[in-house]
Amino acid sequence: MIVRACVLALVIALFGAVASSCSGSDQVAVLETTYGRIVFEFLPQYAPKHVEAFQGLITSGSLDGTRFHRIIANKIIQGGDPNSKDDDPSDDGLGQPGQPTIPAEFSTEIKHTRGIVSAARKGDNKDSATSQFFICLNDEPAYDGQYSIFGRVIDGMNVVALIANAPTRRDDPKLRERPAEPVTITRAYLATRSSLGLPPASNTGAKNAAPSNR
Q1: Which of 24, 46, 57, 80 has the most CB atoms within 10 Å of its CB?
Q2: In whole angstroms, what is the distance from residue 84 CA to residue 54 CA?
Q3: Facing residues of 68 across strands?
Q4: Helix H segments across the chain?
Q5: In the chain, where are the structural domains located?
Q6: CATH fold for domain 27-193
């Protein structure tokens, strides 16, 4: 009985360790796109509600099949709108009625720098983030205090750059920020750094650490 109890305790401890490794600083988001893989870490210390919401979107499969529908040269690439799953670009970026909104979570401790993942919003309403997000290509101080930062690219900024340099529409001025060919998130899922062969977070509180181009 004592041996059995010890074995059971060991199994529970090991399970707890595995569960712990799948959360916190080790957990990352993986975006498999038609241009390659992008991996970003979550920053719950700055935007816990946004992190929880986007983790839910990922695990539910809601981001699968969405597209990076907007490219602003030298600034951002934007995606995550369910409207972008079809071939009608006219409503991409408008979102859908009934999508749950996330209240703004601003922090003065982290800035919109290269590789930052931030939540898009509807117009001037700072509390209207839903499923759309953008990735910064360069430092964008004008976005600080305007959009909620919830992640940071740790692998695949070269893929972000490829998407940013994709040709955009030239046939319609209203669609000039739309990629000429679809840039699709074929699959989004949660993983751990170790499972992807990425090094552990050296400092979970690090601010604006440089993203990786791998």
Answers
A1: 80
A2: 17
A3: 79
A4: 2-21, 48-59, 157-164
A5: 27-193
A6: Cyclophilin (2.40.100)
One-letter identity of residue 213: N
Q: Are 135 and 129 in contact (CB under 8 A)?
A: no
Q: Are the beta carbons of 76 and 137 closer than 8 angstroms?
A: yes
In this structure, the strands spanning 36-42 and 149-155 are antiparallel
Cα separation values, 36 from 6, 42, 138, Å: 46, 20, 20
Contact 143, 112 (CB under 8 A): yes
pLDDT tens for the 214 residues of the chain, in order = 444 444 334 333 433 443 333 445 799 999 999 999 999 999 999 999 999 999 999 999 999 999 999 999 999 999 999 999 999 999 999 999 999 999 999 999 999 999 999 999 998 999 999 999 999 999 999 999 999 999 999 999 999 999 999 999 999 998 999 999 999 999 999 999 999 999 998 764 456 766 666 6
Whole-model pTM: value is 0.86
Sheet holding 68-72, edge to edge: 68-72, 76-79, 133-136, 116-119, 149-155, 36-42, 27-33, 185-192
**CA 59 – CA 54 distance, rounded (Å):** 9
Residue 165: Cβ within 10 Å count: 14
